[in-house]
Every structure is written in structure tokens, then in C-alpha cells.
User: What shape does this take?
Amino acid sequence: MKAIRFDKYGGIDVLYVADVPTPEPAAGEALIRAKAAGINPGEAKIREGFFHSAWPATFPSGEGSDFAGTVAKLGPGVSQFAAGDPVIGFSDKRASQAEYVVAEAQNLTRKPANVSWEVAGSLPIAGTTAYACVHAVALKAGDTVAVSGAAGGVGSLAVQLAKRTGAKVIGIASLSKHDWLVTHGVEPVVYGNGLAGALRKYQISAFIDTHGGGYVKLATELGVPRDRINTIIDFPAAKEYGVKSEGSQAAKTAAVLAEIAGLVASGDLDVPIAATFPLDQVRDAYKLLEQGHTFGKIVLVP
Ligand SMILES: NC(=O)c1ccc[n+]([C@@H]2O[C@H](COP(=O)([O-])OP(=O)(O)OC[C@H]3O[C@@H](n4cnc5c(N)ncnc54)[C@H](OP(=O)(O)O)[C@@H]3O)[C@@H](O)[C@H]2O)c1
Assistant: This one.
């Protein structure tokens, strides 16, 4: 089968498509024929070696957590799925960007029929992270929450999940994203000079930071209580200011994934797809992602 590999840390040029043996599912696992695999900035950071001390790569390394596809084969002891079932899931072994993926059956949920493969394959990391963010800051009706990176992979889902709590949602994003935010009931604010002044016009009671680069400090200066600030990227600031840093690890379960997929199926959650790429254009996919202005999700279609 074809699978993405890299043999050393580096830029997008270290990525290549390898021919490798199709993996076999062990007890408790399933083999999935992947139809879509969302890509995430964290994978680029791992590939570049930025996370070497916390999450080192071993070479040759595969890549990717997210996938959606059909069950091809079941390992011993798996009875909750059958061959051919459409599923959404995540791999904890950096292995989803391939024609076939082995995953633990407990990390799978059924794909609703009316959710496209591309959207389904985008949900695991971005969806569970957005869910974790909204829960971390304990939103309720009457709150006003600001979200940085409001139309990115995580942000676009976080603003919609935040809206569902009854909170007023302020989305910090570039101008090109404002129409989409307004359509989804979010008040857009552009970043850059004047942002702090624009945010001071609101009584902001919670802050979700999906961008980093000073938003945690800004949130504290705006008077947001520290236990109602969550960043998924600025870990040094989380430590310095004593704010939360709950990400995918706080919510990455099949149950949460099923809940999110259900919201998509019922038309209550919109997942913008910025672009899709075949596996052999993986470098182009990450080149686009690493420009840092993605609208929704970028997806590989093996
Ligand atoms: N801790 C975890 O578990 C976890 C999980 C997933 C992701 N993450 C991290 O969270 C971050 C976001 O992930 P993602 O998948 O949402 O990324 P993404 O899809 O690339 O989205 C990033 C968004 O930030 C916006 N942006 C760029 N500059 C900005 C600025 N100065 N102020 C506000 N927004 C700005 C971009 O669009 P515009 O500039 O056009 O507005 C883009 O929509 C990444 O660093 C990722 O590694 C962490």
C-alpha cells in the first residue's frame, strides 16, 4: 500500500509516498481502507522536530491521526464493527496518511451516511480539540467568549460549539473569513493594530486561543479570569499566566467523536473544507497548511 513517510526532521521536502506492507490488525484493532485523512499543524511541527523533546519521531516515520474510511478487516475480539462499515477514527501511531490504517476499535465511531468522507476525515483532532476548548472555559448563556484563529480547523468548530452554549461569540480572524463568521452567528473582529481596543468594547468573560503569539497575555489584560482562558498552543504562556491548556487529549474519544459527527449529520455543525489533495500531493497539502491562514480543514484523499 501507499503511505506517507519521512526519514529525518525537516521541511515539506522530507515527505514522500512509500510502498509499504499493508498492516495487520492485532487483537482489539481494525484495519481501515482510508478514504480521507485531515491534516493538522501539529504534524508539521513534529516533522520539523519542534516537539522532539516531548514527542520524538522514530524513523522512518509515518504521519497523521485523523481518518475516515471503511472497515477492511477485524482483529481478534472486535465484534462491534463488521467489514464494510463506514467509520471515523484516529490513530495514535502517526499512521493515518496511508491507503490502509490500523486503529484500536475503541477509537472508531460509525460515520453517519450523510457526512461526506472529507468532512468525516477532518473531525477527529480538530473536532475533539474544539470540544475540549469549549468545555475548558465552561461556557454558558450570558457569557461572551473570544476565539482567536476563529475560522481555522479548530477555531471554525470551536466558534460553532461555543454558540450552541448560548454564549455570545467574538471571532478573531482575517477579513476574508468575516462573512462566514457572520453567517454562523459570530461577531468578527480583525486582528492587528486596534484588536485590544475592539475587544474592550465587549465584556469578555472567556477566551479560547487557537493561535498563540500573545493572546493569553491579552486575555488576562482584558480581565478574563484565568480559569476561563484556554490555549491549545501557547504552553509557555499557559504556565506563565496559570491558564488552561486543554486540547485533543482532554476529549479524544470515540464518544465525543460520535457526538460531533452527529451534529454534522443533523446540520448543526458546518465543517469548511479548504482543499483536498491526493496522497502523492502531500507536500502541496502541508505547504498550504503551513501558510497559516487555512479556512476550515485541508484533507488528503488516499
Ligand atoms: N493542543 C492540542 O491538542 C491541539 C490540537 C489541534 C491543534 N493544535 C494547535 O492549534 C493551532 C491551530 O490549529 P488549527 O488546526 O486550527 O490551525 P489552522 O487550521 O492552520 O488555523 C489557524 C487559523 O489561525 C488564523 N490566524 C493566523 N494568524 C492569526 C492571528 N494573528 N490572529 C488570529 N488568528 C490568526 C488563520 O486564518 P486567518 O489569518 O485568515 O484568520 C487560520 O484560520 C496550531 O498551532 C495547532 O498546532 C493544538
